[in-house]
Design a protein that fits this description.
With 364 residues, this protein is an alpha+beta fold. Helices cover 36% and strands 23% of the residues. It has a 5-stranded mixed beta sheet. The protein has a 5-stranded mixed beta sheet with strand order 11-10-12-9-13, covered by helices on one side. A 3-stranded mixed beta sheet has the order 3-2-4. It starts with 9 loop residues before the first strand and ends with a strand.
């Protein structure tokens, strides 16, 4: 089957163990040692793990307790998000030397469309190599990259030669690359979906390609159509430098579980204050307040309320979050509370169209 899609030159740059690598760079005593950013031996969740820690099975989103169990020598480091943002900005300045079509996914990864680039270099592979060399020279950190005709394949390819490597999938290699790809490597296919695909006899892209679109939609809903197209190299999503924020949020994982609503109120007030600062810095307001609660048994609950007007004020955010808190008594002690604001005025807030991620906070 021929590819009837735009031939773009897309690079996906992904920093290697970014948070952990920043900590090792800033503190040479941590170099070569297994470290986890966030977590803590009894509380919290690992935000990032160094490659030395990953060898023991330590991963992001793992509880600090389990991480320490897997790696007794693990060193926990408190996150410094201001520092990570500072270095992320340095890296983005490098990207903009090559193209204005930069779409950040987070502090440590981004898509670049270099089809028409500022250097006039026809080789996306050479551009990716030059960008990685500059990142290393200017920040002391390594990055990996994937290069191909669309965002999906570039994203998958960036994971191939990690750390400190890159992989190019040329246009004439795309279909074979996708057919050979293990289904668990497909971006957007998580662990649960991978298991379901195994049960259906789908282990590689080739197996996936043999299924009809109707069959995939029947078993995977809307995602089935996505799987049907990407395995054929069809993914027309453009690199969007002006991704519009859908929500802004802040959340806290606590050292000790909270059992009293009085303590929860206190934490919500602090969280509302942080959220207000972020909103005002970005000149954003919103109508829908969502309260996120994670209990001691790790079950997650969200409660939302939509107001008739846009808000960004701490007191209004707090009062709405408090109302949501008392909608129903917490069923267990609480280990995490978060507040987010969505239904934003992003389109009219002085042209603000930047993606805004949830800011995680860990207590030690």
């Amino acid at each position: 089957m021929e590819l009837h899609v735009p031939q773009r030159k897309i690079i996906h740059v992904d920093m290697d163990a970014f948070y952990a690598s920043v900590e090792q760079k800033d503190n040479p005593q941590l170099i070569g040692k297994p470290i986890a950013v966030g977590g803590g031996e009894t509380r919290g969740v690992v935000s990032a793990a160094s490659y030395e820690a990953r060898k023991f099975g330590v991963r992001s989103a793992m509880s600090g307790y389990l991480a320490k169990k897997k790696c007794p020598e693990l060193i926990f480091v408190k996150p410094r998000f201001d520092r990570y943002r500072e270095i992320s900005q340095q890296i983005r300045k490098i990207f903009f030397d090559y193209t204005d079509l930069v779409e950040p996914l987070s502090l440590d990864e981004a898509y670049l469309d270099v089809t028409h680039n500022k250097k006039g270099n026809p080789s996306a592979t050479l551009i990716a190599h030059e960008i990685r060399e500059r990142i290393l020279a200017e920040t002391g950190l390594t990055a990996s990259a994937g290069i191909s005709v669309n965002k999906f394949i570039a994203k998958v390819a960036s994971d191939y030669n990690k750390p400190n490597g890159q992989k190019t999938v040329n246009p004439d290699e795309v279909l074979q690359f996708l057919e050979d790809l293990p289904i668990g490597k497909f971006y957007g296919v998580g662990r649960v979906t991978t298991e379901k695909m195994y049960q259906l006899g789908i282990f590689t892209g080739k197996d996936l390609k043999e299924k009809t679109e109707d069959y995939l939609v029947q078993h995977f809903g809307k995602s089935g159509g996505y799987y049907y197209h990407v395995v054929r190299g069809i993914h027309n999503s453009e690199v969007k430098p002006d991704r519009i924020a859908k929500s802004v949020g802040t959340e806290h994982t606590f050292r000790e579980n909270l059992v009293s609503e009085v303590f929860m109120e206190e934490k919500l007030l602090d969280t509302a204050g942080e959220l207000e600062r972020r909103l005002k810095k970005k000149k954003i307001a919103g109508k829908t307040v969502t309260l996120k609660i994670k209990y001691s048994d790790f079950t997650l609950q969200t409660r939302s309320k939509t107001l008739q007007y846009f808000i960004s004020d701490k007191s209004l955010i707090f009062e709405t979050a408090k109302e949501l808190l008392y909608q129903e008594r917490p069923k267990e002690s609480v280990r995490l509370l978060g507040i987010s604001l969505s239904n934003l005025n992003t389109d009219t807030a002085q042209g603000e169209k930047k993606a805004v991620a949830v800011q995680l906070k860990f207590e030690f």
